[in-house]
Design goal:
Blueprint lengths: L1 H11 L2 H13 L8 H31 L4 H9 L3 H13 L9 H9 L4 H13 L2 H10 L2 H25 L7 H5 L12 H36 L2 H8 L6 H9 L6 H13 L4 H14 L1 H7 L5 H24 L6
Helix pairs in contact: 1-8, 2-3, 3-8, 3-11, 5-7, 5-9, 6-7, 7-9, 8-9, 8-14, 9-17, 11-14, 13-15, 14-15, 15-17
Subcellular location: Cell membrane
Membrane topology: Multi-pass membrane protein
Keywords: Cell membrane, Membrane, Transmembrane, Transmembrane helix
Amino acid sequence: MVIFQWLNNQLLKMDWLYKLVELLVENIFRLDVSTRVGGSVHFFIYDVIKIFILLSVLIFAVSYVQSFFPPERTKKILGKYKGVTANILGAVLGTVTPFCSCSSIPLFIGFTSAGLPIGVTFSFLISSPLVDLASVILLASIFNWKISIAYVVVGIVLAVIAGTIISKLGLEEYVESFVFNTKVAEVEEEELTTKERIEFAKNQVLDIVKRVWLYIIIGVGIGAGIHNWIPENMIEAVLGQDKWYSVLLATIVGVPMYADIFGTLPIAQALVTKGVGIGTALAFMMSVTALSLPSMVMLKKVVKPRLLGIFVGIVTVGIILIGYIFNAFSYLLI
């Protein structure tokens, strides 16, 4: 247990990096880390370096695994199952495909046009940006393993329930007709060599880092500002765990934004250290990644307003419930 804790602190929380950046800020920049300016600089440098190191390593590992599940194979696997089992499998497969919600839209078209039930596709569409393996490790590095594992479980449950409800409602008529008429070419699967899988993983790292680096910088910057400049009593007055509306407000605030989960993690971290409930912070993260306005605009291109409204309604209610549940039982997780 002691060894695990040491490894967790050194490899995930990167205590060595924390101390190294502290020395850098105090001896090179001549700033006291206990002050607002020094603390902000330390928070920013430490979190940016830590997130990029973990992100690169984890995306490489996840992408190597993902190379065994190209879209064609994923469609074949999902096509073998029906009902809730198919929704569960769709949600689980979504966790090994580190896509943002916007890049998942082409997969939605491909899966639906291939004849997969739209409920299964929606389960995949929700879990893919919300719960990927890299975000699980990053959550553990910022909070702890209990919170990380609980987040994965509720994320998958939300994806399964939402997809199952959409399947039961029989809403295929509210998918734009061109989606079903899209011709799906049967591409023969190529078995990649180990070298090709490594190359694929390297390219995925470069591609994803290029897409999310700005959100990470902005997210860490906002987190540093919250952590060192906004008084704790001010944040607690608005988003304190004792405020019944905090989860609702966090969910609504997150919707207009567009960021990857990696960019929202530093903000959630800063909010929690200021007394915001863990459920409130997670509700904000989930609404940004699953319900961002740009993603909904793209989704509207392939589904009609009624289906889009039902999807948004189900996911919103699910996120709010999850937020309140986490806040109620946070004492078991922290």
